[in-house]
Amino acid sequence: MSIRTAAVVTAFALVAARPAMAQSFDHSGFDALLHAHVVNGMVDYDAFGRAPEFETYLRSLAQFDPRTLAREEQLAFWINAYNAYTIKLILKHEEKNSIRNINKTGGFIKGYGPWTEKLAVVGDSAYGLDFIEQKIVRPEFKEPRIHFALVCAAMGCPPLRSEAYTGARLEEQLTDQGRVFLRESPLKNRIDAARKTVFVSQVFKFRDYEKDFGGSKQAVGRFIARWYVEGPEKTLLEGGAWSKFEYTDYDWSLNSQANARKMATN
C-alpha cells in the first residue's frame, strides 16, 4: 500500500469513527409528562411511576449518543437527562421525604450517596447524577444558569419546569428559570434594599458553585442584577454596597405534590 493510499484509508477510518451528527433529540415524551405531572415545580412522583411513557423516554436516553448534537441541543439533552433520572432515583428507592435519605451509610450520606449511584444510562454508559453535573455539564458548557435548571428533587431547589428543555428554546428557558428562581421565590432569594440586605439561596454557595457566577459575592450580586429593572435593588446588587449578604435556609424536603399539600395545611 502506498503512503498516499494509507493516508486516505486512515482519514476515512477517522471520519467513520465519528458519530453521525443528529439535528435534535425528541424530548416530547418527557415534555408531555412534565406538563401533566408537574405543577408549580412540584412533582407527582406516583404518576411518573405509573406512566409507561416515562420508561420509554429513559430507554431513548440510554440508546442515544448526545455527542452527535449541536451545543445547545447537547446541553438541553443533559439537563433533561439529569432531571429525568433524578425522578427515576426517587421512584427506584420509593422515597417520600428527602433525596438525602437515599444511600445513607450509618445515618450519614457518604460521598454524595444518592448522586453517585450509577443510575443514569446515556449512550450505553452509566453515570451518577453528580458525574453528569460536575464532569459534563459544568466544565463542558460553562453556563452558570444550569444551576437554575438542574433540579435535585428538593423544595430548596429551583422549581422543576413543566416542560422539557430544547436546543431551540434553551436561551429563553434558562433566562426564565432565573426569573422564577430569583424573582418569584422570596424564601430562597430576595433583596431588601431599605436594609441593604441581600438574601440568596445556598445554590450560590454549595461546593465551589460561587466560581461559576464570577467567584465572589460581588460577582454573584452583579449576576443576579440581570433579572432586575433599574431601581434600588438593581443598584444595590450591581454596586455591592450591601450591609449583609445572607444565605437562606435550604429545604431538603422532597419536591412532591404530596409534601406541598402537607405544608399548605400546616
Question: What would you note in describing this structure?
Answer:
- 45% of the residues lie in helices and 9% in strands.
- The chain is mainly α.
- It folds into two domains: 150 residues, no CATH class; 58 residues, no CATH class.
- The strands form four sheets. It has a three-stranded mixed beta sheet with strand order 7-8-9, with no helix packed on it. A two-stranded antiparallel sheet has the order 1-2. Strands 3-4 form a two-stranded antiparallel sheet.
- Strand 3 and strand 4 form a beta hairpin.
- Helix 5 runs antiparallel to helix 7 and helix 9 runs antiparallel to helix 10.
- The longest helix has 22 residues.
Descriptive key words:
266 residues; 2 domains; three-stranded mixed beta sheet; single chain; mainly alpha
Write a concise synopsis of the structure shown.
The chain has 266 residues and is mainly alpha-helical. 45% of the residues lie in helices and 9% in strands.
Q: What structural class is derived from the secondary structure elements?
A: mainly alpha
Estimated share of beta-strand residues: 5-15%
- Poorly predicted spans: 1-18
Number of strands: 9
Largest sheet: 3 strands, mixed
Head-to-tail CA distance between termini? 80 Å
Total domains, how many? 2
Give me the side-by-side strand order of the main sheet: 7-8-9
As a percent range, the share of helical residues equals 40-55%
What average pLDDT do the residues reach?
Answer: 91
Radius of gyration: 21 Å
